[in-house]
Specification:
2 copies of one chain form a homodimer.
Chain A lengths: L24 H15 L6 H7 L14 H13 L13 H18 L3 H8 L6 H17 L3 H32 L3 H8 L18 H6 L1 H21 L5
Chain A binds a DNA duplex (30 and 30 nucleotides) through loops.
DNA sequence: CGCAAGATGCGTACGGTGTGCGCTACAATC
DNA sequence: GATTGTAGCGCACACCGTACGCATCTTGCG
């Protein structure tokens, strides 16, 4: 037996490639999103991702040009969770835009790692899913009655607000997640040390103390929709001229 | 005099520590900002930064806990460029807030690497300089007449917009800078391939064709102030009740 | 059916990263 | 002058992204 072990080895000991599930680009991106969601962006390495797929790190490069491209693909993949608006009719434009904005925020909070990327991409290397959302939004502003040379500025204003506030929220939630506490514990533990830090999400609210302590995420929701309404108020005012 | 020259070697040949400028935390942060400005965030490494200061990489750790903290310090350092508003008087609140917003945007465009950090910090680990700006802004909204439980939401809305749009602009400018072209060349080279990408900064504008080609950065300015005015319109409307 | 050609995965290796550890050499104090 | 704290450094470790070439599998064609 040891005789022929050198050139070929037995059929049984020979390292058969273990049956694997085909390692496609879609699988890789899906696994990347999963890893990003569960461990954050700084924990994403090609080796770790490969081992999650029962593959070597370098195998991924057969399907993905490099890590940056992989992240771009992951970003566009989660944009696929959003459903672009169905139609564009003038009377409901504000309700529809509000829904899109809320969805975009919710998507960002589900995948907090996406926030810095959103800024970094800046809609320059925009993918197909993101583009569907983007042009759906544009169509809403067009239907609302904004002139052609203004509708993109209006849409840009809205998305800037949403991305800005969602990024801030995402960072806050990521910090909490890293600490291992719940949002309420975190806020409570922060309050005594506070007073020197009048930041947005940890400030003592003058309002109802029950709500203040019990539902910090309700406060975040209120903050988001407050600002969203103001932005839309300001935009809507342009249509009354 | 030669008596106490030590047994080891001559004073001249002995490896005197080359006179260095004292390697303080401030120097390190200043050099980091310089490096970040000139080469971007992915080019910042402790070794490269050390060599710029004629020091070993590990020497920096005497003054700075780790790379993340260094970046936070760098962020707060550039916030020092902003001057907080002097007073807070009701009639000029809008003009003052506009100035702060424009300054914040200009700061971000001077240091494009800061944009993703701004989102990531989310005003959680806010430094003293950033806090000065933040509370100065809050004071403006208070003076404007916003009730106590609303002024922080108003300020949050404004900063979300500014950070959101500035991050997008910064990413766009960084992409151009990496390409080595000027903004006009870049936009011109993009137009023929465009049509499938209705993104904000590269869209063909229906307006004056001269301005369209000649001053893309004027377009960016217009876009910024358009959105800023809408946001402030929406906020100001809350004061008329 | 046999064989050539291409696609796919992987082992190895290279140059880079952040940073912990313990040593040296200087500064200031007693 | 002796002591003690400390700034800086060299080394080392574990990890990273990824280029390259080889082994293997799949597929199309004669």
């Amino acid at each position: 037996m040891p005789a022929n072990e050198k050139p070929t080895a037995s059929v049984w000991t020979r390292p058969r490639r273990p049956q694997r599930d085909q390692l496609t680009c879609e699988h890789i991106v899906a696994a990347a999103v999963e890893l990003l969601d569960s461990e954050g962006i700084e924990a994403l390495s090609m080796r770790k991702l490969g081992s999650r797929l029962n593959a070597a790190a370098t195998s991924l490069y057969r399907h993905v040009a490099n890590k940056d491209e992989l992240i771009q693909l992951a970003v566009d993949d989660v944009f696929g969770e959003l459903e672009p608006p169905a139609g564009a009719e003038r009377p409901q434009w504000r309700a529809t835009v509000t829904r899109i904005a809320a969805d975009l925020r919710a998507m960002t909070l589900r995948h907090p790692w996406i926030a810095p990327e959103l800024g970094q991409i800046g809609l320059v290397h925009i993918g197909p899913n993101a583009m569907r959302v983007s042009s759906g939004l544009l169509a809403q502003f067009e239907a609302a009655g904004f002139p052609a040379d203004e509708k993109d500025r209006a849409a840009g204003t809205l998305t800037a607000y949403v991305i800005g506030i969602a990024a801030s929220e995402a960072a806050y939630l990521s910090a909490i997640a890293r600490s291992g506490k719940t949002e309420q514990e975190w806020v409570a533990g922060l309050r005594p040390a506070s007073g020197e830090a009048p930041q947005r999400h940890s400030r003592p609210r003058e309002g109802d103390p029950v709500q203040r302590d019990a539902h910090p995420q309700q406060i975040r929701d209120d903050d988001f929709f407050y600002g969203l309404d103001r932005v839309l108020d300001g935009l809507a005012a342009r249509l009354d001229t």
